[in-house]
Amino acid sequence: MLPNPKPEIQNRIRLTAEEGAWLAGEAGPAIRRAMEIVAALAQIYGAERLTPVASVQISGVSYRNIGAAGLAFLRKWADEGASVRVPTTLNPAAMDLEAWAEQGFDPTFATQQQAVIAAFARMGVGGAGGESGPFPTCTPYLVGNVPRLGESVAWAESSAVAYANSVLGARTNREGGPGAIAAALVGRTGAYGLHLAENRRATLHVRVRVALRTISDYSALGALVGQRAGSRIPYFEGLPLERGAPLWEENLKALGAALAATGAVGVFHVAGVTPEALAGPVLAPAHETTTVADLAPGYAALTDAAARPALIWIGCPHASLAEIALVAELVRGKRLRLPLWITCARPVKAAAVAQGLAGDIAAAGGRLYADACLAIAPVRDLGFAAVMTPSAKGACYLRNLAGVSARFGTLEECIHMAVTGGE
Predict the structure, then answer these.
(1) Boundary-marking domain end, from 299, 317, 347
(2) What distance in Å separates the CA atoms of residue 243 and residue 233, rounded to the nearest whole number?
């Protein structure tokens, strides 16, 4: 919080009369504090004004990450009567909010995680598109939070940011946890970075000269290019994608998630597919060109070869109904020797149950869990020292955030591992 923000902010950022009143405290202490955060961030990044946002995605939901101090921070805002001004969704929690005991979570941890969700619910955070909630998920666009082309939003989750900017053509920077909460309370964020058209041109031309056959291949490609790109914006040429074809959105979801996890990519373009690439030239005059002719290094870089997986995890980012259907097809009639967990948004799980997909997976020994992300869970405390996943982002975060060994392979390889136990 700024000690005396009003004069400095108003001198450097053009505020509307309403925004100035909020900053002056006329809407109460919670809104004043939110405006201080939003305006301070806008100042730091050189914005001249704030921009209204159509929706917000909040990070910092796992109790493992925010702890007692974070919970107290949320409760203070809720106690002051803070309420979100725009549709707002939540990132995943550490556990399934209903089936946490089955997953093996400690009751004390579960109580604190539930308290985090309750604090957000008191502020009006819920599902989008009319659903009740909250529904913690890293794929808010699968539960109704779907911004339109050119619309500004304030999202905080690397893969969701990449998807919103790239696949939907919305405009968002990657917001931090407190910044996203503040944006939700005032419905504003700073007009800088990827909110501005001139900052969305591609500066890395990626020529793909290798066959991509699976969703995990797109994930491996993203891992390779993310390392090369850093914070630059890639433009992909040579991808075998067509808008509306089966799994085209899932392939782009995997690509963007890996780009953001191994690099700092907030937007990418694909020739003939993504909306801004379809609308006109997106390559900046000054750009670098790179070629990808082999995906093997992408798989190898995120695999601990000596690891013996104790769990197979699918759903990073959260699985779509189509991805769950792929798993159900692969496990139908089989018996798994290793635990198989699929994570997804709760409405997606409900659809999978209604279509019988969850039952097919359960019959083989697998489980479908809502709300949760293993990367932000106490995985070792659950008894898993090594995890196999078809997601480059999942493998990267398992190693770097959860502190466990990871193996990255195709979905078929993951299911084979689950069936054979690695023998």
Answers:
(1) 299
(2) 21
